[in-house]
Amino acid sequence: MSGPRVGERIDRYELMSSVGRGGVGEVFRVRHALLGSEHALKVLLIDASTRRARLMREGRLQANLRHPNLVPVTDLVVQDGLVALVMELVRGPSIELLRSQQLSVPEIDALATGVLSGAAAMHQQGTIHRDLKPANVLVEVVDGRVNTLITDLGIAKILFDDPSGDEPITRSGLMLGTPGYMAPEQYRSARRVDARADVFSLGALLFRLAGGVSAFPARSWAEAYDRASKGNRPRLSALRPDIPARWERAIDAALSPDPQARPADAAALRTMWLEETDSTRITRHAKLRWPAERLRLIPKPSWAMAEVSTLELPSPEPGPPPARPGPHRQAPPR
Q1: Which of 131, 142, 186, 280 has its CA 20 to 30 A from that of 194?
Q2: Helix 195-211 to helix 245-254 angle, to the nearest 10 degrees?
């Protein structure tokens, strides 16, 4: 379905500019027509006309999922068969744009702790993200402190979960995730994964943050699956010898091809990463104050926001999906 355009209005929100478009939605910077406040509005390119009650129920659930390291859904608008999620507007870049090779160990610890804490809160409430990656973690500087916020946390649940037993919103075969960050089992079915798939994605995200390169560099979808399923990646300590041993232990566990060998959820992974369970000390890790000269490593704020990545594939089978023509859309070999 076609989406709205800049200059139009969706309910109380005036569309000021488009900041990106992905496989299932488009993000706009919007202004509340009555209050004048600015927000991010994610318009989902799905037909919501027959699913209004379910979407409204899910919007209420996501609006109550609050944490300093999560970008919350603050409103849900359904208009003429179109659904839009209203989120806080984060004035900062994604982790993907950080010059991570130049970051110190305490700085990386602070960023990672924020990401893991946000994901832990999400998992505690029963929400699985399914597309955790550097582009979906935004960075905001407030009073000299750098905070990380996970975005798009409610979209996967809206797209895939169907507790009522009704027909799922997505068409059969719509796979959500990003090659290079997806757990091997998620290539087969994004609907059947649990928190351990997010743990794998967090491991790949932390590898990228700490090492400055992708854990599973690949030129195709099939190559990314093959590397992830075989654990074929560089050693983090070879890329950066000064890292704490606890980081490598946590990432090795998170990136296990076998879901049963991974930490059960983000909270367990955070314990491994920090070797710490005391909540007060964990909070101190995340609230590191950066000297002014170190803030130059964070690009100037931009309106760029993360997009949900999708791949259109045939309906999943017991093994990986069959191949489909087109660049970067090949299925992994059986």
Answers
A1: 280
A2: 140
In a domain, 287, yes or no: yes
**Residue range 39-52, pLDDT digits in tens:** 999 887 666 655 55
**pLDDT given for residue 206 in this prediction:** 97
Contact yes or no for 100/109 (Cβ under 8 A): no
Most confident of 54-68, 138-152, 237-251: 237-251
List residues bridging with 76 in a β-sheet. 85
* Residues 201 and 131: beta-carbon distance below 8 Å: yes
Please provide the size of the chain in residues: 334
Residues of the domain holding 278: 95-312
CATH number at residue 184: 1.10.510.10
167-198 pLDDT tens trace: 343 444 455 788 999 999 998 887 788 999 99
Mean pLDDT of the chain: 80
- Whether 274 is in a domain gets the answer yes
What is the distance between the alpha carbons of residues 252 and 45, in angstroms, rounded to a whole number? 37
In contact, 239 and 197? CB cutoff 8 Å: no
DSSP-derived secondary structure letter, 291: P
* Torsion angle in degrees (nearest 10) through CA of 278, 279, 280, 284: 100
Could you give the C-alpha distances from 252 to 95, 206, 227, 282, in angstroms and in order? 21, 11, 14, 21
Whether 329 maps to a domain, the answer reads no
What does pTM read for this prediction? 0.82
- Total domain count, the chain: 2
119 and 34 in one domain? no
Mean pLDDT of 273-285: 87
